Amino acid sequence: MTVSDGDPYANGGAEDESSTLSLDDGDIYVCQDGPRDAPALLLIHGSASSTRSWNPMVPLLTGSHRVIRMDLLGHGRSAKPADRSYAIPDQARRTGVVLDRLGVEHAVVVGHSSGGAVATALAEQRPDLVTALALVNTGPSLDAFIASESAAIGPSQWPPTDEQLRRIASTGFSRAGYQIPEELLEDVHGMTYHTFTTTMSATRSYLEQRTLPDRLTVLGKPLLVIFGEDDRRWRSSSASDYRAVPGSKVELLPGLGHSPLLEDPPRTANPLLVFTAIHAVRAD
């Protein structure tokens, strides 16, 4: 079923076509922007987020791309079942099914934070589908993780208060006092305690099995890594680990933190557009 839902956060007010696709293990919310015959660009959000985290970027990308976003299972407006797997490979499999349903045969795939792990797993499963990868502030390994001082939230404290959420989310930006968008807090409030904790642990498990540079080296896909230099969740110096991937390009963005797509969309979009101009494939 396809609808125009009038989401006030979508594309800075531009027209948004959205749909809910019924998959075997739950409904998945999808939105598309830009010409349908333009090269497909898939944007994957991070943990405890949704398609809305990409809203500021979309208007900068639709001039030359068919921009596709989806809420991963357990997030946003997608289903949040308690009896389904939230492992990274399963999230990637669902993502591939969504692209198949949309008739996409080739796509450049961009992942923010843990969304980069999903993008990598999708390329592992569907090398025919993924033409190139771009990772935005995706930690290459658990060694790069910066432990948070925020107190853990237990099931009895769920859902957390706005103040608790702001304290936890503050490390997602380069500076204390950053005005965290209300819709990002809403995305966390909309999750269940099970989906919140399970999706977080899924990323850890995937990185424990094998680092992303190791996985990407085997794939041989063109790779762009964009990293806010003032990231407070993953050591930005770890971005250099991706240089082990043949042909990779690493772009550090000074003054930006874990969420450059929100803090400075134009600076984040510029290297991405240069990259996709080379590697994107137009639909037949």
Notes on the structure:
- The chain has 284 residues and is α/β, with parallel strands linked by helices.
- The chain has a single domain, classed as Rossmann fold (3-Layer(aba) Sandwich), CATH 3.40.50.1820.
- Helices cover 31% and strands 18% of the residues.
- A hairpin with a 2-residue loop joins strand 2 (17-23) and strand 3 (26-33).
- Helix 3 runs parallel beside helix 7 (212-219).
- The longest helix has 17 residues, at 193-209.
- The chain starts with a strand and ends in a 5-residue tail after the last helix.
Task: Give the topology, please.
Elements: E1 2-3, E2 17-23, E3 26-33, E4 40-44, H1 58-61, E5 66-70, H2 88-101, E6 107-112, H3 115-125, E7 130-136, H4 162-169, H5 182-189, H6 193-209, H7 212-219, E8 223-228, E9 249-253, H8 260-263, H9 265-279
Parallel strand pairs: 4-5, 4-6, 6-7, 7-8, 8-9
Antiparallel strand pairs: 1-2, 2-3, 3-5
Helix pairs in contact: 2-3, 3-7
> Any idea what the CATH architecture is?
3-Layer(aba) Sandwich
CATH superfamily: Alpha/Beta hydrolase fold, catalytic domain
Overall mean confidence score, pLDDT: 91
CATH class: Alpha Beta
Strand-and-helix sequence, N→C?
EEEEHEHEHEHHHHEEHH
Low-confidence stretches: 1-15
Cα gyration radius (Å): 17 Å
Total helices: the number is 9
Give the amount of beta strand, in percent: 15-25%
CATH topology: the name is Rossmann fold
Tell me the total number of β-strands.
9
Amino-to-carboxy terminus distance: 24 Å
Tally of domains: 1
Please outline the major beta sheet. Answer: 9 strands, mixed
Secondary-structure-derived class = alpha/beta
Question: Which shape, going by the Cα principal axes?
Answer: globular
* Major beta sheet, strand line-up: 1-2-3-5-4-6-7-8-9
Helical fraction equals 25-40%
